[in-house]
Amino acid sequence: MAGLNLRFTDEELEALRERAAAEGRSMQAFAHDAVMAAVNERSRLFNEAAEHVLRASAELNRRLA
After folding, report:
1. CB-hemisphere CA count at 13 Å for 37?
2. Which GO terms describe its biological process (predicted)?
3. Is residue 54 part of a domain?
4. Is residue 4 part of a domain?
5. Spatial CA neighbour of 30 closest among 48, 12, 44
6. pLDDT tens column, 51-61
7. What is the 3-state secondary structure (H, E, C) of 4-61?
8. Model confidence over 1-46: pLDDT tens digits?
9. CA angle 25-27-22, nearest 5°?
10. Per the structure, how many domains does the chain have?
């Protein structure tokens, strides 16, 4: 498995530690899930935007075909 080193300020690291502890999770698990949620959200937003463009241009594309 590949690894990734991230750098945080002392304040950011403390916030991460507190949030993970509040959820009863390790900092690593909490950070991993947060990154994956951000990746998935970006993909979802891209897909929604692409779907919107396809719907909005469907008639034009039909006439150009």
Report:
1. 6
2. regulation of DNA-templated transcription
3. yes
4. no
5. 12
6. 999 998 988 88
7. CCCCCCHHHHHHHHHHHHHCCCCHHHHHHHHHHHHHHHHHHHHHHHHHHHHHHCHHHH
8. 788 898 999 999 999 999 999 999 999 999 999 999 998 888 888 9
9. 45
10. 1
Tokens standing for residue 50: 């692409």
Inside any domain, residue 5: no
Cα 6 to Cα 39, 50, 60: the distances in Å are: 16, 32, 46
The domain of 15 spans: 10-64
Across 1-65, the runs of DSSP E, i.e. the strands, are none
Residue type, 48: E
Structure tokens at 28: 């690593």
Q: Is the pTM of this model over 0.90?
A: no
Beta carbons of 30 and 17 less than 8 angstroms apart? no
